[in-house]
Amino acid sequence: MTSAHAQALSEATRALLIPLVRIFLRNGKAAKSFYTLVKHVYIELAQKEFGIEGKPATVSRIAILTGLTRKEVQAVLARQTDKHHSIGEEYNRAVRVISGWLKDPAFSDGRGHPAPLPLYGKRGSFEALVKAYSGDIPTRAVLDELLRTGTVKRLKNGTICLRSRGYVPRHSAPEKLRILGTDTADLIATIDHNIYEAPDRPLFQRKVMYDNVPLEAAKEFRAVAAARAQEFLEAMDRWLANRDRDVNPSSTGSGRVRTGLGIYQFEEILDDAPARQPKGRTRP
Questions:
Q1: Whole-number CA gyration radius for the chain
Q2: What is the largest CA-CA distance in the chain?
Q3: Alpha helices in the chain (DSSP H)
Q4: At what angle do helices 173-192 and 3-26 cross, to 10 degrees?
Q5: What is the secondary structure of 77-90 as a DSSP string?
Q6: 240: alpha, beta or left, given left = phi > 0 and alpha = psi -120 to 50?
Q7: Res. 276: pLDDT tops 70
Q8: Which residues of 6-35 are buried (b: 16+ CB within 10 A; e: fewer)?
Q9: Cβ atoms < 10 Å from Cβ of 250
Q10: pTM of the predicted model, to two decimals?
Q11: CATH fold of 87-162, please?
Q12: What is the DSSP letter of 120?
């Protein structure tokens, strides 16, 4: 690695760490706990992905790659358990149910809007929706999750009404932090793919940004971005759903790939910086 490369990586990592460490500080997590996590991830990745001839890396090789001692590596491996169970899968199942409700005419009100659904029934019910879009997850489990996160509400007549066009937990900080892990990891993995794994076959990665926008325009942009991004994501969802074997068993092809597209808005107040006014034309 050249010095320029190393410096660029350090600067990028520092920029990445600022919002992450801010979240750690908000939650009372000390620097030692962050280091412990980093050490465990270093060892896990070195073992699984940096072995020789497809085999898991040995303790000695892990120590060489990570700069840790053999004793540290052995201690971590001895306590290692698989805790990466179904966080992403649970998130994905909830998203699928909401997406199906938004796009499937069988669950609409006839005007293209998601209809209030009776809880049970073979057709046009919440039970039918869950069966069609969440795989083998029980209806009651999905309902409890969506009620808990404020995504749906139960009306007095017993029907289930959609409150949000996306699955974003409203009342649970732990759930939101899990989404931080799954969504941010996807973005960083895309950058890794584009730089190292397949620079000749890059995945889409773009953003639009201006740094001298008035507060009023920034507020308006929030609404515009949310509306247009939601519309675009729903179109992408319809395209992918038609090709996903869980949703559309008639979809053909080989292999199994997890793919998708994420959109996010960012905003930073720069009041300490002087507003730059457009330069007027000078006349001779």
A1: 24
A2: 79
A3: 3-26, 31-49, 59-66, 70-79, 87-103, 126-133, 139-148, 173-192, 215-241
A4: 170
A5: HHH-----SSHHHH
A6: alpha
A7: no
A8: eeeeeeeeeeeeeeeeeeeeeeeeeeeeee
A9: 6
A10: 0.67
A11: Arc Repressor Mutant, subunit A (1.10.10)
A12: S
DSSP reduced 3-state for 153: strand
More confident: 275 or 24:
24
Domain extent listing, the chain: 15-83, 87-162, 172-199, 206-274
Q: Tokens standing for 10?
A: 């350090």
In the block, tokens 């404020």 appear at 150
pLDDT level of residue 85 (50, 70, 90 thresholds): very low
- How many beta carbons lie within 10 A of that of residue 213, not counting itself? 15
Q: What is the mean pLDDT of the chain?
A: 86
Reported as a single tens digit per residue, the pLDDT across 172-228 is 567 677 777 888 889 999 999 999 999 999 999 999 999 999 999 999 999 999 999
**Percentage of residues in the chain with pLDDT exceeding 70?**
88
Q: How far apart are CA 267 and CA 222, in angstroms?
A: 9
Compute φ and ψ for 244, nearest 5 degrees. -85, 130
CA distance 234 to 101: 11
Looking at residue 238, what is its pLDDT? 87
